[in-house]
């Protein structure tokens, strides 16, 4: 048993989609979240820059004495070197593995769509894991660089004409490929789930990378005997690298019933 908090981070607020699910499945755990709102988006940056940012994010969480780290960011998960992750003093997971397992379990026609940031798609991370599990999978991948700024700026209301147009622009070829499963490979995208689902059609299963990762992390914590042993009363503390105002305005959207909790600004460059 271990009562230290679980550390979760993302380039911005998208990782809160994983926090929401963690709080649902592990109500007795404390959570420390860092959103790098001053440097979002990561997905259009160079590989070295993303690795450097991720190192600082992880360093900050380790200083909060976390027992487990979740990179609730498709971009970091696709970029941070696994050999470096394996050397961290606490267990670490990204979102790629759990999302791919869920997609492979869901697909019937072996046509899987994948959307993510430019860095995620360029890395080929999801495609490699899916092919390991299902070598004959037909994967249609598309980078959607405008989705993160749309979500961070709150363009998520159902039917928003700007967002609807961008969704159609990005997803037309994915839909035309006949996929029956679509991985939302960036943790910001669940905020657009309803509109993406409307565009793709009812028979396409959408995989929420943050949500399935939170479920997998809960199982891993149990296996590693790292759960707190409490069945309720877990708390969440939030840290951001830009003004907390944006977080406070948006948190309801991302966290729903779990919104609330202290938010503090930190200087992530110093980590
Ligand atoms: N939520 C991050 C991800 O999953 C967004 C990346 C970005 O900042 O571009 O990829």
TrEMBL record:
Substrate binds at residues 10-11, 42-43, 187-188. It catalyses: L-glutamate = D-glutamate. InterPro entries: Asp/Glu/hydantoin_racemase, Asp/Glu_race, Asp/Glu_racemase_AS_2, Glu_race. The active site is at residues 73, 186. Gene3D superfamilies: 3.40.50.1860. Pathway: Cell wall biogenesis; peptidoglycan biosynthesis. GO terms for biological process: cell wall organization; peptidoglycan biosynthetic process; regulation of cell shape. GO terms for molecular function: glutamate racemase activity. Its EC number is 5.1.1.3. Keywords: Cell shape, Cell wall biogenesis/degradation, Isomerase, Peptidoglycan synthesis. It holds the Pfam family Asp_Glu_race. It comes from the Bacteria. PROSITE patterns: ASP_GLU_RACEMASE_2. Signal peptide: none annotated. Belongs to the aspartate/glutamate racemases family. Provides the (R)-glutamate required for cell wall biosynthesis. This is Glutamate racemase. It comes from Candidatus Gemmiger excrementavium.
